[in-house]
Amino acid sequence: MNWNIKQIFSSAAVAASLLFVGAADATTLSFVVTGDYSASWTMDSQPTPISAYDGNSFVLLMGGNYAYSPSYHAFITFRNDIWGGGLSIEGDSGYGFPLLLLNTYSPSPQLYSGTEGAPVFATGAYALTGYSKPNVYWGNFTLTISAVPEVETYAMLIAGLSVVGVAARRRKKPA
To answer: Does the record's keyword annotation contain Signal (predicted)?
Structure first.
């Protein structure tokens, strides 16, 4: 089999790209609440709380989309299993005081691992029950936590498709 310079270079490029490919390490997560209330935000899988109450809960200030709140920011409290698990979301009422938008009740799953001072989130879907505003009513909610692909993932996909396209275009047709 005769190998020319282009084939050797192509093989080396493919081998080098395989060496640098690792498991996707998505540190940014997407949080989406659906059901009788809707909200969405993104955050790091290992956030730094603005308040942490060891053995109880922690609070994050997150930008996102929250139904019934004129603001794009909300305080989100995550509780551990001892305090019933789940979360609550407090938004801005538009009148200078907080408005409780969603509060889940026990038993709800604990949505994080680690400590309240250093929580770690993982992907998954969680069924929650509680009440929401503006009309206080009981409802069922689903919190879905999913990974947000990093820019490098898309760049690698485009590069790979380009290499395949060039190889297909340059392939000689049999006579």
So the answer is: yes
